[in-house]
Amino acid sequence: MATRHKRREPKKVTLGKVASQARESRIRSSIVPKPTGTRKQTVFTRRGEELQARNPDLSRIPLTPSNLSKFKPDLRRDVAGRALGALSDMRDKGISFTEAASRWHLNRRTFRKYARSGLHTLPSTGRVRSKKTDRVHYLFFKPTTKPGKYDPVETKSLKERQTYVQWRVALDAAKGGDSEKMEEFIAEYGHSPLIGGVRLPTSVHEIQKISDALAEEGTKFEGPYRVSGSPS
Q: pTM, whole model, 2 decimals?
């Protein structure tokens, strides 16, 4: 006698179950780790430069227009100091006049006023570019061997500003016990160079006395541009 097989009826699947199953499938696929390659990722900036992916340690990343936003300017400076900072960014980082003014919170007229001798306009395009040097006047205050007493030092060029800043950096290093930077300063600029008629001491005895005065006063050098300058 022949056996009669039961006819299988198709399972009814509701739309809710289909959506649920699709959701579970996506979750499972996202859990599975994707294979990672060893090839470096290439990043293209808006200027068309090509940069290879680098270590996230900012100290190892060069200052380029693509990662400039990671290095914020010191906006505690006065207007003249911010103008010099913007001018330095144009020289060292290759950014535009407008971008430098924006980074340092300056309007373009003020930037041009305080950094006039370091800027020039291209006749063909009207673009503003930075010069390799300038005659911007800027007033620093040099610490002395007496706590709280500072002598004014008027710088009148980029070279004089750089000399003073390097001396202050070497002074702070010597204050912390590192005399190597002061030795490098002497090798490049000589013993006790003059800026604006003011001598920058480099002898061990004077540096020690200035360091003691700064320690007693409790101050620390916060950057090269702390006081007012005059437009040039």
A: 0.61
